[in-house]
Design a protein that fits this description.
alpha/beta
């Protein structure tokens, strides 16, 4: 009798759990793959699955989404004026490659991303050089410093940055910092205290000022931007922390890609920062009159054409993902990808499959070690999918590869914060620079070739020789791709 009663209770709990799972998953709009992934978690892991959903699956409130969506892009008039004033010089620059015209129009339509010409771009592939350049530009700042990072750790390099910003704030320079509380492992009030006392402002992205902890893993601000005086801008993959200088034994050398831009593309970065700032800041800190943050650039610093493109859960367009797909579809000879996480959705994977089957050379480089175990095993699974199609896949053995780079046909490239995974496509706030400059694309390709010399090309034999347990783990991890 007791045993029968226990079975009845278990069955009832399973029914309640299943009904709760259905109600929870369908309570907000999600794509089909994500729905099935969450149903798998909630039904196969009663009670525990709901806790995981609370951590990972909960969404940003409609109020916060509304604040982001209603922000106006600023500085577009100044960018247009600068470009018109330089029209004669601009016409002497390399024209936009034919293959890029549709990509340019796509971003203009989906993200109001203005094509800027005459930019000078420098690329950094190690933390020492990137932070040395950034810190020197901050020292030279005269009017304002705007920083937006997923991660700013309370460690040696993090404190060096805040000390420098504090000194500039004491000089009267406007200093504003946006950080992601989850990515930075907390608000670190002690870290920012001296900056705030000096007149600088630091705030966590879309968080209440006295909220001590966020348990929401998704919908993070993954951007990594710096704007100095509206003249110099940084964008790429480096966060702020000692591990990005190769000081963590777990990761070893940190291989990343970051850009320093001088030119009108910086004003597009500025526009992105101001939209995020006004969606995040307190009412008394909002920036309404912003013309002083968009200076006139009287001379063309370089020859590169750049569009700054952003995407995030505040917009269903998935602009950066659309850009990747447009690049892959337009490639005629070669596609080169570096990414720490390769978890494509069906659309991206099919586009790459079509490219390979059409005779396009596709090369992918991934890390040799995980920083997130399930994510890495899913990456390995999808890497094998490409190998089976005929693509070249390289495992970087020179440290931890965190670089986010795509190059097609030796002339179009993108660098930014977006990984080649579903999280970056739909769950995080990202920003990438898309560049139409064969010379600069060549620089990135040269760095890729250097990395190839420190890499191992993976083959089907490598997968055949791995343990059965590893194969099972890779296939199992793949099931959760939509929520990794």
């Amino acid at each position: 009798m007791l045993r029968d009663s226990l079975w009845i209770i278990v069955i009832l709990l399973l029914i309640v759990n299943t009904l709760g799972a259905i109600v929870t998953v369908f309570s907000q709009k999600r794509d089909i793959a994500t729905i099935w992934a969450w149903l798998l978690v909630l039904i196969t892991m009663p009670v525990v699955g709901f806790f995981i959903f609370f951590l990972v699956g909960s969404r940003i409130s409609n109020k916060k989404i509304f604040r982001l969506r209603t922000q106006e892009q600023r500085g577009l008039e100044q960018i247009a004026d600068n470009q018109r004033q330089q029209l004669q010089k601009i016409e002497q620059l390399l024209p936009v490659p034919d293959a890029a015209s549709e990509l340019v129009n796509l971003f203009l339509s989906s993200d109001e991303a203005v094509l800027t010409r005459g930019n000078d771009i420098k690329v950094y592939n190690n933390g020492q050089d990137k932070f040395a350049a950034l810190f020197e530009d901050i020292r030279q700042a005269k009017h304002h410093i705007h920083l937006e990072y997923f991660t700013i750790y309370d460690d040696q390099i993090g404190n060096q940055l805040i000390d420098l910003l504090t000194a500039k704030a004491q000089e009267g320079v406007e200093v504003r910092v946006i950080f992601d509380q989850f990515g930075s492992h907390g608000q670190h009030r002690r870290l920012y205290k001296r900056l705030r006392l000096a007149g600088g402002v630091a705030t966590s992205f879309l968080m209440r000022p006295f909220q001590l902890l966020t348990l929401r893993f998704n919908f993070r601000n993954h951007r990594k931007l710096a704007i100095i005086d509206g003249m110099i801008g940084y964008i790429g993959g480096f966060n702020v922390g000692d591990q990005y200088l190769g000081q963590f034994k777990k990761f070893g050398h940190w291989r990343d890609t970051h850009l320093r831009i001088h030119g009108d593309a910086v004003l597009s970065l500025q526009s992105r920062f101001l939209m995020d700032w006004n969606a995040t800041a307190e009412p008394n800190e909002l920036l309404v009159k912003t013309t002083q943050y968009f200076p006139v650039i009287s001379t063309l610093p370089g020859r590169s054409m750049v569009q700054i493109v952003s995407s995030g859960p505040d917009n269903d367009m998935k602009q950066i993902k659309q850009g990747f797909m447009r690049m892959f579809a337009s490639a005629r000879t070669e596609i080169t990808i570096q990414t720490p996480y390769f978890i494509p959705d069906a659309a991206i994977l099919e586009t790459l499959e079509i490219a390979v089957m059409s005779g396009v050379r596709v090369r992918l480089m991934i890390p040799d070690r995980p920083d997130h175990p399930f994510v890495y095993r899913a990456t390995q699974y999808y890497a094998k999918e490409l190998i089976d199609l005929g693509a070249e896949v390289y495992r970087y053995d020179g440290g931890f590869l965190h670089s986010k780079v795509v190059i097609i046909d030796h002339e179009i490239a993108t660098v930014g914060s977006a990984n080649m995974d579903i999280r970056s496509f739909a769950l995080n706030f990202e920003t990438n620079a898309f560049m139409y400059d064969p010379a600069f694309a060549g620089q990135l390709e040269a760095l890729f070739e250097q990395d190839v010399s420190q890499s191992t090309q993976l083959t089907t034999v490598d997968y055949e020789e791995q343990s059965i347990w590893m194969t099972i783990l890779q296939k199992f991890s793949r099931l959760f791709s939509p929520i990794l």
